[in-house]
Design goal:
33% of the residues lie in helices and 20% in strands. By secondary structure, it is of the alpha/beta class. The strands form two sheets. Strands 1, 2, 3, 4, 8, 9, 10, 11 and 12 form a nine-stranded mixed β-sheet that branches. Helix 2 packs parallel to helix 3 (59-66).
């Protein structure tokens, strides 16, 4: 029997699969389970002219905006929930340096469903009278071909590369999603099924024996994945279901640093450019603090 091909690569190699100008989908939802180690690597490699397409974003898009990596964002929300506004994103949008295209939250996910089904658009029956339609020329009116009912055609997401953060995967690219999952993990499955290039950062690379024992939890099979990267605490400072909580203290530090461009440049120097890699980034926080973030409640 031929040896199974390993898809395991480094974080730097994975970020190299996202060239300037890529149309990129980032997994997670709002401030939950974002692939932040990958985002920091994109900033470290000084990527430019990216378009991020998704449903709800937070410090992932805000950091890319503050680092000058973005040209366009298509989403329903960019904010830090209880931590406040995404101020880098807001500054870039208000300055005209970043094009922002609004989509309703659930319709944003339907755009990935269109990709999954091989469709150029997704029909939506409830957007009439909504100003999202007024200001988004990519959403077009149509009549239902069966009933004639007025509807709108929303374009497929069309992401070229998708990046999600998961709790575990094997080297061949089988990705484990906990049976007790929440919306961010379900959205990750949808995004992974909609794109030809899927990069998964995982808390732990597990053995083939582990995958065989827990095959029912493999929601993203190996044929859907392009590359696997082991990145413990890879969503920090956002949480990962079943592994660790949000680092609320660092989220507040992030918000304070994003108050002006100069302070945020200093933040990027400290937490992105100075550390030689993700493990050096984790060393900035120390084992005691990271251990305190570990979570068991979300497993039960």
């Amino acid at each position: 029997m031929p040896a199974l091909t390993s898809k395991r690569i480094t974080l730097a190699e994975a970020a190299g699969l996202v060239p300037d100008g890529t149309r990129l989908a980032l997994g997670g939802f709002a401030v939950y389970q974002k692939p932040m180690a990958f985002v920091r690597e994109l900033v470290r490699q000084r990527r430019r002219e990216l378009t991020v397409v998704g449903s709800a974003h937070s410090c992932d898009v805000d950091m890319l905006a503050g680092a000058g990596c973005l040209a366009r964002v298509e989403t329903s929300y960019v904010g830090l929930e209880k931590h406040g506004l995404a101020r880098n994103f807001r500054r870039a949008a208000e300055a005209g340096a970043l094009e922002v295209v609004d989509y309703p939250e659930l319709v944003s996910l339907d755009r990935f469903r269109a990709d999954q089904e091989g469709l150029a658009f997704w029909p939506v029956p409830f957007l009439g009278g909504n100003d999202v339609v007024t200001y988004n020329p990519d959403i077009r009116p149509m009549a239902c071909p069966i009933t004639g009912r007025p509807m709108h055609a929303v374009p497929a997401a069309g992401a070229k590369v998708a990046v999600i953060h998961a709790v575990a995967a094997d080297e061949q690219g089988n990705v484990v999603i906990p049976a007790r999952r929440l919306f961010p993990q379900s959205a990750d499955i949808q995004v992974a099924r909609s794109c030809d290039v899927v990069i998964v950062t995982a808390e732990k690379i597990v053995s083939r024996a582990f995958i065989r024992r827990h095959a029912r939890l493999v929601e993203i099979p190996s044929y859907r994945t392009t590359a696997i990267v082991e990145v413990p605490f890879g969503a920090h400072p956002t949480p990962t279901l079943g592994r660790y909580l949000a680092d609320e203290r660092h989220m507040d530090d992030y918000v304070a640093a994003s108050g002006d461009a100069g302070a945020f440049a200093a933040y990027l120097d400290t937490f992105v450019h100075a550390p030689r890699d993700h493990y050096a980034y984790l060393d900035l926080f120390g084992a005691e603090r990271l251990a305190a973030l570990q979570d068991l409640d979300s497993l039960l």
